[in-house]
Design a protein that fits this description.
heterodimer, A: 264 residues, 9 helices, elongated, B: 242 residues, alpha/beta, Rossmann fold, 38% helix, globular
């Protein structure tokens, strides 16, 4: 086989197959949304597993991200005597960018990998084939509740990340920049006075919309990778790695386009 | 009735089914034996519609399986059961929920009726009282029985077994084979069994075929085939038992 054919069969063809399957799975999942009520038990289980159980990790990471942002920007502002604006800058950073992004990365690492491993194991143990033989739609039974759960939980977790990150920034403002906490909160409040859709501040709702898209993407990638898993335990391990990698790449890509569409 | 006519299937350059003919009469049981990798499971996957042949006909109850649309295939599969080699139970569902799954997902049955059906099949596979256990809490033999119960719960008229004795000790293997025969006789189902065990074939089958290179080498009653002097059969089965 010549090098170009080899590149095509070993790299491009699988990539095109995965992308095509991901798009088909997204469309099929969206078409099945009216069946959500039938899956409410599974949906609630998944919301608990993917959302509630990830909340402490998201909060921990967001707290430190808030502190880092406050420290990096605050020290520069202090040189010009502008440290009173730190609350506003931390709030904008967290709401627009860091909250959704950090939440998405944590979910990609923990939830997307778990979904890929779970469905991948089911695939190699013939459980997905069993569902097909039993005339049960595996997209409706397995994928729909996971995707909807993460699409709903990602914005909630992002809101938690925003709040905790702003508090983390507040700790730095008070301890390192000598800004009073009430003054810090007042500065944060300036961002919240800018109304956007649904009465939410523009910076906040833009971040929440982004995080819903990230949640949907992460779940589709996790489930889709699992459903395409092959070759036993090593296949599941590989699919899990690919799920995390692909999720993070897509988050970064979508982040750019959504930032451009929602905020620019 | 299951009927395959001149079925051919290749994966790349490997010809797995090569002009295969097979007839399983309604209400009878047919066992397929053959070396590993000879295409026995591929044959089952054609019958249940998981694979399509490159050429030839696959008929189940008069329906041409490869030509069915998705919904028609689902309807046909509701009348078919499939026992997987390792049970293929959903690991987060209890024994009861695993068996109830096809009823809850594909029928409009009420929970009371579902419970009645599940308890009935649990009794048939002699597993009453294990409803609340999870697949990881029961033995391989019990998992096979739960898989069999799940295959039976929709009361199919055709049932396919993929190596039902795989991974079981000889005693459990015999028990499963006897259970399959008993169920087949009681419910008058059409059964197609892929197996490596001549003992299983003797117990469950009305007819037996030895499969090699994508087609049947020898067919007949289990006694005729297992006692055959055909050199390839003897090579596969080993010397005759006295």
């Amino acid at each position: 086989m010549d090098p170009i054919s080899k590149l095509g069969s070993s790299f491009i063809a699988p990539l095109v197959q995965q992308a095509g399957f991901g798009m088909w799975l997204s469309g099929r999942t969206l078409a099945l949304i009216p069946h959500c009520l039938k899956r409410r038990r599974s949906l609630l289980d998944q919301m608990y597993l993917t959302g509630f159980k990830s909340a402490h990790v998201v909060a921990f990471v967001a707290f430190f991200i808030g502190m880092i942002v406050a420290l990096q920007i605050g020290l520069k502002l202090a040189q010009y005597g502008q440290q009173d604006s730190i609350g506003m800058l931390v709030a904008i950073s967290m709401a627009r960018e860091m909250g959704p992004f950090v939440t998405a990365v944590v979910l990609a690492a923990s939830v997307s990998s778990a979904m890929a491993a779970e469905l991948g194991t089911m695939k190699v143990q013939d459980e997905l084939t069993a569902l097909e033989v039993l005339s049960i739609d595996s997209v409706s039974y397995l994928v729909l509740p996971r995707v909807i759960a993460l699409t709903l939980m990602a914005p909630i977790l992002t809101a938690v990340a925003d709040v905790v990150g702003i508090l983390g920034g507040g700790v730095i403002a008070v301890t390192q920049l000598q800004v009073d906490f009430p003054a810090y909160l007042l500065s944060v409040d300036e961002v919240l006075r800018d109304p956007g859709l649904f009465g939410l501040p523009q910076d906040l709702y833009a971040g929440l919309i982004k995080s819903a898209v990230f949640g949907f993407t992460i779940a589709i990638v996790g489930c889709g990778s699992g459903m395409l898993a092959e070759k036993g335990a090593s296949g599941v391990a590989q699919t899990t790695r690919e799920a995390v990698r692909t999720s993070i790449i897509l988050i970064i890509l979508f982040n750019y386009f959504l930032s451009w569409a929602l905020v620019a | 009735m299951i009927e395959l006519r001149d079925v051919r299937k290749a994966f790349g350059r490997q010809q797995v089914l090569d002009g295969l003919d097979l007839t399983v009469e309604a209400g009878s049981s047919y066992a397929v034996m053959g070396p590993s990798g000879s295409g026995k499971s591929v044959l089952l996957k054609h019958v249940i519609g998981l694979l399509k042949p490159d050429s030839g006909r696959v008929l189940v109850a008069g329906h041409s399986v490869p030509e069915l649309h998705r919904e028609e295939l689902r309807d046909l599969r509701r009348d078919m059961g499939y026992l997987f080699q390792h049970g293929a139970l959903i690991n987060w569902l209890s024994v009861f929920d695993n068996i109830a799954l096809p009823l809850r997902e594909t029928t409009a049955m009420g929970e009371e009726e579902v419970r009645g059906r599940v308890e009935k099949v649990l009794g048939q596979v002699q597993l009453s009282g294990t409803d609340d256990k999870y697949p990881s809490e029961i033995s391989g033999g019990m998992q096979k029985r739960v898989g069999l119960a799940r295959a039976l719960v929709t009361e199919p008229s055709v049932i396919l077994y993929d190596e039902p004795e795989a991974g079981l000790d000889p005693g459990m293997s015999q028990a499963i084979s006897e259970l399959m025969r008993q169920i087949q006789t009681e419910l008058e189902m059409t059964s197609l069994v892929v197996t490596h065990s001549d003992r299983c074939a003797r117990i469950v089958a009305d007819r037996l075929g030895i499969f090699e290179k994508g087609r049947f080498l020898v067919e007949g009653t289990p006694a005729e085939v297992l006692d055959s002097d055909h050199p390839r059969v003897r090579e596969f089965l080993g010397p005759k038992r006295s």
